[in-house]
Amino acid sequence: EAGVAQSPRYKIIEKRQSVAFWCNPISGHATLYWYQQILGQGPKLLIQFQNNGVVDDSQLPKDRFSAERLKGVDSTLKIQPAKLEDSAVYLCASSIISGRGNEQFFGPGTRLTVL
Amino acid sequence: QKEVEQDPGPLSVPEGAIVSLNCTYSNSAFQYFMWYRQYSRKGPELLMYTYSSGNKEDGRFTAQVDKSSKYISLFIRDSQPSDSATYLCAMSASGNKLVFGAGTILRVKS
């Protein structure tokens, strides 16, 4: 079974530029998450989708971050304009109910550096 | 105060040692408790899952949850160099939205 795919793996931009990340979840997983992981910290949930709909975006900085999940499969996360403090790894995860609860499977992440 | 507190380490142990990793939390609504392992430049992977209080064992790994003390632990027996990674505790009230600790860096020396 293929895992969660993310691209690009690395991105370097100047502050005030825009950037977009792409995620392809595991086939059949209805729930998709975007997390932000700053160096030395645990992942922080930015947004959760159930199929096409947003379940939780309470920690998404909506003045600069946006996300969409078209057709309930792939998702994109955009930052516009980027700030220095946005430097982090952006993780995408998808989940399925298993014997281990709502098990989330993570992609390798996109490492963003804002200069 | 953070909802989940975890000592970042690093924790350095010799091969074969028993490792103890811990987290404390403040939200009494948490009832799902997980441990994730994250290798460098990779995403986290689920290692252990526990619902409510008690112990769960899986091979060399044992997870313990003490809800009365708001304290969870992960024990690794016979630690191996391949266990060197960052270990993240994670918790949830609903089973859906996870709150992660900062992660503990573990280094197992051969």
3D structure, described in words:
- The complex is a heterodimer of chains A (115) and B (110).
- Chain A is mainly beta and 115 residues long.
- Chain A is built from no helices and eleven strands.
- Chain A has strands at 5-7, 10-13, 19-24, 31-37, 44-50, 53-56, 65-68, 75-79, 88-98, 101-106, 110-114.
- Chain A is globular and about 45 Å long.
- Chain A starts with a strand and ends with a strand.
- The model of chain A has no long low-confidence stretch (mean pLDDT 94).
- With 110 residues, chain B is mostly beta strands.
- Helix content of chain B is 0%, strand content 55%.
- In chain B, the strands form two sheets. In chain B, strands 2, 4, 5, 9, 10 and 11 form a six-stranded mixed beta sheet that branches.
- The N and C termini of chain B lie far apart (37 Å).
- The mean pLDDT of chain B is 95.
- Classes of the chains: A mainly beta (115), B mainly beta (110).
- At the A-B interface, strand 5 and strand 10 of A face strand 5 and strand 9 of B.
Task: Give the helices and strands, then pairings.
The complex is a heterodimer of chains A (115) and B (110).
Chain A: E1 5-7, E2 10-13, E3 19-24, E4 31-37, E5 44-50, E6 53-56, E7 65-68, E8 75-79, E9 88-98, E10 101-106, E11 110-114
Parallel strand pairs in A: 2-11
Antiparallel strand pairs in A: 1-3, 3-8, 4-5, 4-9, 5-6, 7-8, 9-10, 9-11
Chain B: E1 4-5, E2 11-14, E3 19-25, E4 32-38, E5 45-51, E6 54-58, E7 61-66, E8 71-76, E9 85-92, E10 99-100, E11 104-109
Parallel strand pairs in B: 2-11
Antiparallel strand pairs in B: 1-3, 3-8, 4-5, 4-9, 6-7, 7-8, 9-10, 9-11
